[in-house]
Fold this sequence. Notes:
Elements lengths: L2 H16 L4 H12 L5 H18 L1 H19 L3 H7 L1 H22 L1 H8 L4 H17 L14 H13 L7 H11 L4 H23 L11 H28 L3 H19 L4
Amino acid sequence: xxxxxxxxxxxxxxxxxxxxxxxxxxxxxxxxxxxxxxxxxxxxxxxxxxxxxxxxxxxxxxxxxxxxxxxxxxxxxxxxxxxxxxxxxxxxxxxxxxxxxxxxxxxxxxxxxxxxxxxxxxxxxxxxxxxxxxxxxxxxxxxxxxxxxxxxxxxxxxxxxxxxxxxxxxxxxxxxxxxxxxxxxxxxxxxxxxxxxxxxxxxxxxxxxxxxxxxxxxxxxxxxxxxxxxxxxxxxxxxxxxxxxxxxxxxxxxxxxxxxxxxxxxxxxxxxxxxxx
Length: 277
């Protein structure tokens, strides 16, 4: 893998991790198109890059959530957990992120081999799930606008979004697209649905990074410069993608991503049949 290929893949990873178009599918497609095979070490750096991007963007929210979560532990020890839980929205948000992460953690542990088989299989699998991503996005845009926000979200809504994230472990099913669509379907307002989706990605990306961290050492070789530049590209692209999505979801429809997913699904499906990819 040369520098240009690494930077392209880093940009694709950063953008598609947070845009509702499926990062897993696009990484498979772009590597096939460029004729390269990404190493586990490079994938680890890309996950670290997108993790840095989302944590930096939401650094103040994360700080408040961590502080409030720690205070809630004190509440628990002093027998006033319930009172503190309902008086501080950031305490609830911290615990709800933990709750919503449980489904994807269980799916990742229990069905790891099955999911890996799908990623290594024919490209019509991610092509099909791109159609699914486009469809759920399109339908979610036609749901009545909700008003649930960080002050009013309950464990039911948080868990529903967590289930959406667990489903998005499938190649071609966008994590951000699925969770945002799930949030809009159950009445979250647009801005908070996107915000909660992005914050919810942090433990999921962190988990993937921890599982792959042992492979970082294998990147410290002659190809370290391409890996480093791809890593930097993923941070910048990820940050810009988050900013763009938050602006877009408040002011415009996400239908453009539905059309894009359907078009990409057709292209990849036809390309896999013709053995182009």
